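Backbones bend. Our protein:
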Amino acid sequence: MTITSVDTRTSLARPPALRPGDRVAVLTLSSPADQERLPLGLEALRFAGLEPVVYQSSYDLGSVHHYLAGSDELRAAELRSALLDDSIAGIIFACGGYGAQRTLEAMDWSGLERVPPKVLSGYSDVTAILEAVAVKLGWSSLMSAMVSCGEFAESYTFSSMLRCLMWPERVRELRYDEAVTVVGGTAQGVTLGGNLTLLAASVGTDTCLPARGGILLIEDEQEEDYRVDRMITQLRRSGYLDGVAGVIAGTWDNCGTVEQIHPVLVDRLSDLGVPVIAWANVGHGGHFQSFPIGVRAELDADARTLRLLEPPLVPQTGS
């Protein structure tokens, strides 16, 4: 198996920014979408000037297993269809949950290397998809809220996502004012990572993107302190963290108290010899600052900032 490593010199291939009127696919590669929240999220996209194209998986309530939005083959086929459809400018996922790893097992990547990059946007279980797109296609992407998630239309979260998707030239520095410096210093690298559970689950697969040379983000929800410890330890023992340039630990929603989780982060991350911050507002729990994946950046752990050395997407001409 060939393991792809992050190129610390250049960003991954960045898709073009979205424009008003662009058609964006809305689908789920994981669990069924919340049918009460989905219409609200779709309307928010329309108000922003985008045209959501809703795929069958977004309406599947668990026709195969209650925890999956349709069959693995359906979800994989929809992702492939959206990537191949020239009329679709990007994909904003409906939700996460569970199932992305199964989707990847069923995915046919043949011929997709000829497709021009288009943005994929989501988080949580979608971490596995963003990681796979980086490995298989060499594309950057965006970790952001999803259409049927409760925080999607919250003003801060939605504005952060739209700024990255439609006006990426305005995204120069991400400030994490409420974060805590664990290890000071600065580091440059290509951004990567996402949900800790999914990163650990991808180790040993052909879509794993090890953190060497990268600025790694990790976050999670509903995991007890010992589980967080176990998953970070898995990343350490597997070699995934070898050569990482810096670490941003995001939100840990419903993972216990700060007093329970913070010592785990300090214990498992502070001896890596790289800059580390914790409790950045990226991930589960609302007030979600979108995080570009696959873009060159500089982490200043003392200032608790991430300076992007390139826009997260290619700005549209004339923007």
